[in-house]
């Protein structure tokens, strides 16, 4: 049964259909992301915390039954070999450390491609989206990754659409999430959609989570130099940080947060006291300031990184912003350390 065929159980006399999820764990996978996802399913599956698989079921599937070591050292054993992927409503790939050269083997890649061919939805949990992207399985789908991994995703997969201003994303036959507690949020959405709101509420209450967050909720992180109470401003600021070379037009930035340029201008003036263009320039200068203090990169290299054509133009803008030249700032930072 495909997920679209499930009908919520709210108000229904007969039991809800089971939600079946297969988990693929990568080498050095993130234990918290996996645990929060699967425990949300467990607690939603029955009543009174009996851990019965009444409304949901899950398996850890793999090419072997060998223990898989998480990034914290805890090991998990697969509970199933690779079977027909249509036995599952979703297959979730749980990633982990990006420094692992081959996070999954070729049999696993082949299995994921088989699942895709059979129209089984795939979910990238934490850096599991990197695994799906490397397998060519995120084309025509938007990826959601942690702000911590955004730049590396863009470098590895420059032709793919990615964002890090939200917690998770469900895009047709794909899902992706930033990891951490957002894994529980994504699992809760699946529970609510395919089992019931009561099941979702039961799981979240036991997990001591007050309320599941929505896909469009902003990732909890502090922007580069300030924080604001408007989600649209925060999302725009995060996007500015991701395009510190100045390549993001204000019109497109406004569209990304669901506003016209005029609306974005008005909100920025109200919330930050500056225009989006001025805020964007400030973000670029703050990034340059951070690079100056932490590296010995030449000024021209830093200038190019933050979108200036030459060092002299960069120096003038930096001094106008901070009251000192880049060289003066670097010297002061060096003395402070």
TrEMBL record:
Domain HTH araC/xylS-type, residue spans: 234-332
Protein's UniProt keywords contain Secreted: no
Species whose genome carries this gene: Rhizobium lentis
Protein name, UniProt field: GlxA family transcriptional regulator
Keywords: DNA-binding, Transcription, Transcription regulation
InterPro entries documented for this protein: Class_I_gatase-like, DJ-1/PfpI, Homeodomain-like_sf, HTH_AraC, HTH_AraC-typ_CS, INH-QAR, Tscrpt_reg_AraC-type_HTH
Keyword hit for Transcription: yes
PROSITE patterns with a match to the protein in the record: HTH_ARAC_FAMILY_1 (PS00041), HTH_ARAC_FAMILY_2 (PS01124)
């Amino acid at each position: 049964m495909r997920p679209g065929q499930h009908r919520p159980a709210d108000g229904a006399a007969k039991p809800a259909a089971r939600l079946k999820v297969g988990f693929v764990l990568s080498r050095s996978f993130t234990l918290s992301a996996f645990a929060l996802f699967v425990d949300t399913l467990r607690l939603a599956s029955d009543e009174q915390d009996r851990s019965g698989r009444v409304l949901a079921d899950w398996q850890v599937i793999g090419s072997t039954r060998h223990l898989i070591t998480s990034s914290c050292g805890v090991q998990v054993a697969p509970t199933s070999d690779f079977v027909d992927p249509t036995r599952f409503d979703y297959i979730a790939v749980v990633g982990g450390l990006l420094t692992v050269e081959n996070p999954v083997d070729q049999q696993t890649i082949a299995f994921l491609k088989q699942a895709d061919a059979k129209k089984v939805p795939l979910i990238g949990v934490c850096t599991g989206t990197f695994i799906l992207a490397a397998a060519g399985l995120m084309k025509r789908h938007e990826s959601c990754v942690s702000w911590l991994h955004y730049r590396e995703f863009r470098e590895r997969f420059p032709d793919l659409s990615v964002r890090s201003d939200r917690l998770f994303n469900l895009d047709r036959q794909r899902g992706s999430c930033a990891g951490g507690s957002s894994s529980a949020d994504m699992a809760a959405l699946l529970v609510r959609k395919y089992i019931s709101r009561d099941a979702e509420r039961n799981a979240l209450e036991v997990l001591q989570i007050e309320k599941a967050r929505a896909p469009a909720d902003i990732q909890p992180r502090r922007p580069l130099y300030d924080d604001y109470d408007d989600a649209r401003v925060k999302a725009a600021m995060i996007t500015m940080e991701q395009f510190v070379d100045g390549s993001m037009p204000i019109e497109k930035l406004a569209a990304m947060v669901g506003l016209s340029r005029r609306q974005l201008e008005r909100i920025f003036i109200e919330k930050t006291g500056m225009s989006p263009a001025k805020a964007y320039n400030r973000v670029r200068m703050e990034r340059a300031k951070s690079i100056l203090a932490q590296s010995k990169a030449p000024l021209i290299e830093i200038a190019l990184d933050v979108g200036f054509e030459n060092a002299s133009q960069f120096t003038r803008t930096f001094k106008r912003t901070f009251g000192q030249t880049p060289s003066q700032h670097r010297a002061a930072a060096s003395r402070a350390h």
